[in-house]
Amino acid sequence: xxxxxxxxxxxRRDRQKRGIGPLFVxxxxxxxxxxxxxxxxxxxxxQAQPGTALDQFLAGVGLAALLTLGLAGLVRPLIxxxxxxxxxxxxxxxSAAVAHHIDAWGIVxxxxxxxNIAETDTREVRELLTWLGLADIVLRGVxxxxxxxxxxxxxxxxRRGVAHVGVLFIAAGATATIxxxxxxxxxxxxxxxxxxxxxxxxxxxxxxALYGHWKGASPAFTLPATIAPDAVxxxxxxxxxxxxxxxxxxxxxxxxxxxxxxxxxxxxRLDGSEVIYFSRVSSCGTDTATSLPCMFSNLGADGFxxxxxxxxxxxxxVLMRAxxxxxxxxxxxxxxxxxxxxxxxxxxxxxxxxxCNDSGCQDEVLVGALQRKLSSxxxxxxxxxxLMGSHGxxxxxxxxxxxxxxxxxxxxxxxxxxxxxxxxxxDNTIDYxxxxxxxxxxxxxxxxxxxxxxxxxxxxxxxxxxxxxIYLHGLPKPLAxxxxxxxxMIGWVSSRAAAALEVKPTCLRDVSxxxxxxxxxxxxxxxxxxxxxxxxxxSLDIFAIAREGPGCGTRP
Length: 556
Prior knowledge:
Shape: elongated
Radius of gyration: 29 Å
Number of helices: 22
Strand order of the largest sheet: 5-4-8-2-9-12-3-13
Distance between the termini: 111 Å
Structural class: alpha/beta
């Protein structure tokens, strides 16, 4: 028996000696992710360091050691079997994908970003993909994942695996103790003053974001809680139907509107249209999935959450219950649940030649839909137009070529474009949006003999165009630059609507310089349609604010 088992035991020991040790593999995986997928984190950390050069160097080395040991300790239990290695391989690929988009766009990863990803459509996904981006993900993620499966890893007992985990976490704890006792001031100041660091650190940022999104997700179906159950209107308000056209813009930032002082004529299409520009308007969020529900909610920016808004009615529900006809005309990637209980028409039904293709329709298609809708309205109504606007990164697709500002950035890899070309392309989208707004005002004015019409344009959020190496939008509100949260708002009121509202256009112009936000929209819509409810706050209704001015509040 002893003699017979000796060769088998020797063979088993020989197999155990072959291959790479799992402790080395988990340290290599952790080191790879922290070194090659965290360029943005280390760049921010290096730039944020206070203290002497020696303190900065020691803090960087110590933090790198701590993070490597901690991540290796978490990975080690997965290395010993095929299923675990598959999970680690997926971690490598996901980390590379997240790293690419952080490096390319200057974004940070939180649960709002995950929600936007979950609610995006195939068109938006296609516009974010590039061949260089795929190559980057292959190099940083797919190749190391393949190596992880191809290299032989020495099998060890469970007891040895537990011992490895213990050693790694003890070493991490010792490193943390040294850092805290010697460099606490340096590290505490860095992380306290630069909260974006935790949203840049891969893989903890997207793992926490995924968990936060899952934890905060609403049930698949819930009956919305009723708001403003006491809402009533005096009927009829006027001899003619009162109709408001609300144009919800996309990714338009106030900084590039000539109506607000921008030196380039991006709003030339609105010259002579008697529009009123509101120059100090802030958005609820910096992404559509947050701002769009918030605009129509009465929760206010300070009390808003997507999950809370999804479980209750919004102003559209209140208006319909009060007898206002509401229609949503959609030319974007969806209304994020806002129009769930509202008659909705998605563009295109039949798109005009040259305006629609496989990527969707340009916003002029909404003008024709609005014209058809207004011609059939015979009661008080709200018509919402959800524009594609300046949605990036493929700005060049948002307007008919060539556009007034040249040269342009005709690619979705906007970070590779010349700065002037990028700004030109974005300004072309604003110029085109101005045309669409002007056309919508013209259509509304054409119906002014039988309808009391008004138009409001309000963007959902702004956009970063490379300032401080940040592109697109979606940064958490406390970290976001003002370009992402300062948005344009434009108003136009027909003479008959102004008379019915008992507000002079000059009075609206006088109050247009006051600070406003998305919080004003809920109450302004109720005020326009004369809805009385305890949920209505006159001090947030822009029309009511205008009536309070000197010499205002009387029929013009």
